């Protein structure tokens, strides 16, 4: 039986950080690792804030002291954030960080640096950081955030304390989002597109998400019953409309649409994402075989790969519609 603690989102990460703060056993470096949208950056900020807090309570920042207020208003000068410049984190960024920290630690003040998307460090940058981790300057604390731990140097991983963030069960996220006031039909889709509550909330807050979902329903229906109509819809509402830059999201939702067909065939109606389309799904789910719907899903994934390989989005999507019509 699960304890109340294990039901709390990211309880493992919280336990590690809480123990470090309450026992005053702070490591020189932490690796916040897990899927995007699971709250890694928020946790890193909360941990950093607690490190600066003058009156922490049970391992948490008091939110009222001068240091907490400075952190909240972005005026905490002893925190450094490193993010990718373009596609990577470059060696010059790490060298500048090292210079800044070396200058500011003369007063023996607490210092924290947070590296987002740490897996995007170049080899040179990673090696430069490694030397810094091997000879840490006290009291400097490094907080590295990554969604791909295996893409980082093993030597860096071995010199940091791992703080794991795990995907939340969709059912848990759905219940929480509905409790927060999210529309159930939209929330069912958002939780399938994200590994955590933060990511799901970001999707729900995306401009036009409800309209994109409606468009996907139309395309999903027309793609297997009215090929010409699907082509017109894609041309007018997708590529000439407001959602031309949301093609990746459209494909992700379209994948869920065809997955719903397999869920219905398997008798798992409660797992449907497009639950409000149950009547239509029940009337068409058996128009193709289970393998046929799997093939549709594979076609969607292939279209996504073509676009990431720089094939024109409109051409890729039109080819997708052809393949979906053919079965």
TrEMBL record:
It catalyses: DNA(n) + a 2'-deoxyribonucleoside 5'-triphosphate = DNA(n+1) + diphosphate. Its EC number is 2.7.7.7. Keywords: DNA replication, DNA-directed DNA polymerase, Nucleotidyltransferase, Transferase. The keyword Nucleotidyltransferase applies. One of its GO terms (molecular function) is 3'-5' exonuclease activity. It comes from the Bacteria. Coiled coil: none annotated. One of its GO terms (biological process) is DNA-templated DNA replication. GO terms for cellular component: DNA polymerase III complex. Transmembrane segments: none annotated. PANTHER family: DNA POLYMERASE III SUBUNIT DELTA, REPLICATION FACTOR C / DNA POLYMERASE III GAMMA-TAU SUBUNIT. Residues 248-325 form the DNA polymerase III delta subunit C-terminal domain. This is DNA polymerase III subunit delta'. It comes from Paenibacillus montaniterrae.
